[in-house]
Amino acid sequence: MAEYYKRLFYIDVKKINVAKGTVQFILMLIPLLIFYIFDSIGSGLLFSIGTLSNIYVFNGTKRSKIKTIVVSTIGLALAMILGSLTAESMLLFGILLFCFATIPYYVCNTLSIKGPSSTFFIVAYGLGSIMPYQPELALYRGILVISGGILTVIIIAMIDEFYGNRYIDDLVAEDYNSILKLMRSFNNDDFETINEHVMRSLMTTSDALSSVKPAITQQQPEYERTLLLHQLAEGIYAEVLDVKAKGIEQLSEDLMNMMDKIVSMVKEREYPQSGWTRNFRIDESFNHIAALIYKTEEILFAPTKHIEIRTLNTRPHFITRLIRNITPESNAFVISIKYAVIMALAITIALVFHIDRPYWIALTVHSVLVGNTTLLSLERATSRFVGTLIGIAVVALILWLNPDTIWILILIAITAGINEMLVASNYTFAMISITTQVLLMSGIAVGHLSISFAYLRITDVVIGVLIAVVGVTIIGRKSASNKLPEVVATLLRIQASTFYYLYASNHKIKDPRNEMFKLYLNLSNVKMTYSNAYGEFSANKQVLKNYYLIIFLTEQITFLLNRQLRDGHTKCIDNEVLGHYLLAFERVAQQLEKGILFPSLTLESIDGAHQLQQLLSELQQIKLLK
Questions:
Q1: Which of 120-124, 538-542, 559-563, 589-593 has the lowest mean pLDDT?
Q2: Last residue of a domain, which of 427, 460, 475?
Q3: Among residues 475, 509, 528, which one ends one of the domains?
Q4: Is residue 626 in some structural domain?
Q5: How far is CA 394 from CA 45, 411, 440, in A?
Q6: Burial class, 172, CB count within 10 angstroms (exposed 0-12 / middle 13-18 / buried 19+)
Q7: Which residue stretches of 164-272 are H helix?
Q8: Which domain holds residue 183?
Q9: For residue 485, how far is the Cα from the chain centroid?
Q10: Which end of the chain is less packed: N or C, by CB atoms within 10 Å?
Q11: What is the DSSP letter of 131?
């Protein structure tokens, strides 16, 4: 328990984001001061709400950042317009509040987008509802919010232009650099640790490339070049692991020199000063790796007009993920349904009992549930309550000092910056500034500041926390540790099915993308279930630690199968060998589900997929205690 309370007030200095906090402070301050000069503070507040779209921007290319700002701004403007129109209709208000809470939550959960999720859509909708009821001004308010988004686009684009942005290029360069580190550690004890880092790096790059695919034809060749370089990195990585699986103990020095030079070339996009030659003496065992390195050089410096290959990314497009995750088989969808049930209950209670600020209750419930595990949700509930109390005390002090309006506006901008600086570092301290900002903004929205807002705030937070905690405890995620064996077994059976269609002589995969999505969906389910299980009070942490190795091995198998699907693998193997592999997959699945211990099968190595034999053999060796 002492550790629990310690975490409430522990500040992770590494996660303090001064740069983002500074940008948010400037974005909020500009419209607030400009409209103050023209004696239109309410309009300044509306304009500044549009700048909250910056909060949804994380690392990415300039194009992906602008896309995020545009989508977020449209959502915020729509929330403001509808909030202004529906404030007098309790039923319609409740339905739309529910939509602005649940839809962004599902999107962020499904796409694994870190950040505030529904938070500021709820805030924008709520502020629209508490402003003076003037439906004829709804469109005007929305336009002001959009104007704030436009300012955000301009500022972020200028920052990117000034500092430069090679986000995707840097990710691809890191792919190659991490593979070089793996090759240097080929015989060292840290090989497996670096191996895990490489796989995570490659998956991050795949996701990033999926999110920035250009719609403009002229940009397509350079995108294809980058995607090809990434896929060649995946190929080199897979071949290095295949060499390791064959039992080869040492990589040749010439191969290491080749890789060292290609890393420099990918990073700098030019030939190294020390020169580049194709006269390396490469052992026959490493021919496949060398061929991929030479291919990397060709793609890297090929004229743009020659980059006409249309490649297939193994990571599904985000729209595909959003649509196809709407199924009971998706953990992201199931968790979103549970969230929706608790949110619907909270909004219903707020409206039935005529709570003055129902969106504050919805906001509190959301802030607790966004923790995604029982422990983290309860921790956020405590943080929100404690931070709110202190924040109310800060607001009371501000009201006692009775500062001029301009200082109130500056404080709103300062607290917005502090929020972004601290929210990832410590939620309790961030809640102090969040509470201060929300109460001051609410006062500006209705035209006057009053301590009564503070009393309403603490009442709504207490009610919201109680609803969220009860919801998490009763219909939350306490069965995740029990479901983990089942979801891992399901993934193994999907992998076995994909393996069969890849290697069987009498079957052919008609739609590789569909198979890739099935692998992606079930691997996502496994990782989400594992994360949720680790946040349960009753979970056996030692058993879960053992599952970590199983999940890592299944991730590697998924990576290998995805690569073969993408490359159009056509090789068939003997039916007896095929049967042994399928039986091995099923035995591991049965062991996880039912605790049945089977003797390990000796698997014959498959040419071009030695790593698969090693991974499946390792899976058979793991014995889990129930």
A1: 538-542
A2: 475
A3: 475
A4: no
A5: 21, 11, 11
A6: buried
A7: 167-184, 191-211, 220-245, 253-268
A8: 167-306
A9: 24
A10: N
A11: S
Query: Does 319 reside within a domain?
Result: no
**When comparing pLDDT for 160 and 75, which is higher?**
75
Q: Indicate whether 337 and 465 sit together in one domain.
A: yes
Residue type (1 letter), 490: T
Over residues 241-253, the pLDDT tens digits come to 888 877 887 888 8
- Structure tokens belonging to residue 580: 């042994």
- Give φ, ψ of 330 to 5 degrees: -95, 125
- Tokens found for residue 24: 């948010």
- What's the Cα-to-Cα distance from 88 to each of 78, 92, 245, 562, rounded to whole Å? 17, 9, 68, 53
Q: How many domains does the chain have?
A: 3
CB-neighbour burial class of residue 245 (10 A; exposed 0-12, middle 13-18, buried 19+): middle
Both structure tokens of 254 = 């010439």
CA atoms within 13 A on the CB side of 190: 9
Percentage with pLDDT > 70 across the chain: 89
User: What pLDDT score does 98 carry?
Assistant: 97
Judge if 201 and 249 occupy the same domain.
yes
Query: Are residues 263 and 400 located together in one domain of the fold?
Result: no
Distances (CA, A) of 349 to 92, 126, 323, 354, 613: 15, 16, 31, 8, 56
Taking the C-alpha atoms of residue 164 and residue 178, their distance in angstroms, rounded to an integer, is: 23
Helix, strand, coil abundance in the chain, percent, nearest 5: 75, 0, 25
Taking only the tens place, the pLDDT of each residue in 336-378 is 999 999 999 999 999 999 888 899 999 999 988 887 666 777 7
Under a CB-based contact definition with an 8 Å cutoff, are residues 430 and 26 in contact? no
pLDDT the model gives residue 624: 62
